[in-house]
Amino acid sequence: MSVDHLIAASLCGFAKLLTGVRALWLGSEPVARTRVYFANHRSHGDFVLIWASLPPALRQRTRPVAGADYWLTSPLRRFLINRVFHGVTIDRRPDRQGPNPVEQMGAALVAGDSLILFPEGTRNLGEGLLPFKSGLYHLARAHPEAELVPVWIENLGRVMPKGSVIPVPLLCTLSFGPPLAPIAGENRADFLGRARDALLALAPPPD
Amino acid sequence: MDTTRDLISVFGGIFALLTVASLIGAGLKWRLSPAAAHPVIDNLNTRIKAWWAMILLIGAAIWAGKGGVIALFAFISFQSLREFISLTHTRLGDHRALLWVFFVFLPLQYTLIAIDWYGLFAILIPVYAFLLLPISAALGADTTRFLERAAKVQWGLMICVYCLSHVPALLTLDIPGYAGRNALLVVFLVLTVQSSDVFQYVWGKLLGRRRLSPAISPSKTVEGLVGGVLSSTAVGAALWWITPFTPLQAGLIALVANIMGFFGGFVLSAIKRDRGVKDWGAMIEGHGGMLDRVDSLSFSAPIFFHIVRYWWA
User: Fold this and answer.
1) Domains of chain A from N-terminus onward
2) Do B18 and B51 form a contact (C-beta atoms < 8 A)?
3) Residue A128 near chain B (CB below 8 Å)
4) Quick one: closest CA in A to B282, which residue?
5) Which GO molecular-function terms appear in the entry (chain B) (predicted)?
6) N or C: which end of chain B has fewer CB within 10 A?
7) What is the pLDDT of residues B158-181, one digit of tens each?
8) pLDDT, tens digit, 9 for 90 and up, residues B257-274
9) CA quadruple B239, B242, B246, B251: dihedral positive or negative?
10) Cβ contact B232:B199 at 8 Å
11) Nearest CA distance, A27 vs chain B (angstrom)
């Protein structure tokens, strides 16, 4: 086992211990298919938790999509996202010069990997969901073979909110919903609205 | 008056009962549904299996001594509190208060038992946490549903830490003529209250007809309640020889503890119902979460502690 694998395994173990994470498969199963897991985003630990609750065989072939502006700015982060998590780092700026994010994500899907994507585009500090960015729509259109699985992450935003150093050991639940039906001629706004509703449907009722 | 011998007798008795229960469970499975899944019997068998684990854990803690019992209940508090706060609405501004709750007040409360400082043990959470936590939350500068959030955090701390910590606190009581035997009081309380839960379940399944309060808990019945409380009161009376009580006193005290225990489960069911969940968690297979298992203990422990402290210590 390489050092990278060891670090990955121990981070997963730590995340599981801290959050007691429970994965509920509600309408989809943990099987080896090319998938885009799309989830709500409250904490930097979000993809680690999704990653940790997948069976190890699937975990090897599942790559988080991460913002280059955060993850490539220090040697430690760069090491983690590239070597440990095998992330697809994308440039989120509208005036970027480099590769197109949708093409980068598509290349990973073509290679047979699955993706973890946060379509809100940034961490949401409030309740509910922010409007979705259009990347998910373009990706779904270019790759109809990939299953789009919504994943609601409950409580991690409270365990480690933005700006906090010490985590609160609350219990987290991940709800994996049924895959989104294919897109077939749907326009962007309708598709994104449908994807957002599918994700919100997995959230516990507001109190 | 040999404590070790009494502990061995009691635990030996429990193991014998669990063996009988396991045999009955296996027999029912074999007679009624050997191949297919049977929800009630399968759940019964997972519950019995979990009981083995829980009894062995309590036995090991008592065998390890005062430190073991304190550590066990500190862990139970920690897990219950996690389950409680996880299902409670808090906001970003509560983060620091929650850190205080988990990493200062919980360990401190159990440390006070270890160093036998009753004066502070009794007021740490009802006074100091009560005043300090809302200050911390207010410094979070978020007024949305402020009083509600502060109240919920305090409530969770009271139920999951303050009340439960009265179980190991029994070890600190100085009871004339009972020195060195306090661990048996812990056994007495845990056994009567937990057996009340078991008997309520059994009587409810066997005879349960009239729903007690469908709005709060669909599975609780009048027959289950009466049969359960009476049976476990009899268990308490029969255990008088491990306590400083007479048989009559032991029965009465067990009755009080069981009634409080019943209402503990009842009150926490009301919260679960409001939150739209059936269980607090999924930690103990067949039982739900930790808090599902100890809700009755949380409500009965402080009262039992006070009765013993006032009249016997």
Assistant:
1) 3-200 (3.40.1130.10)
2) yes
3) no
4) A22
5) nucleotidyltransferase activity
6) N
7) 999 999 999 999 999 999 999 899
8) 999 999 999 999 999 988
9) negative
10) yes
11) 20
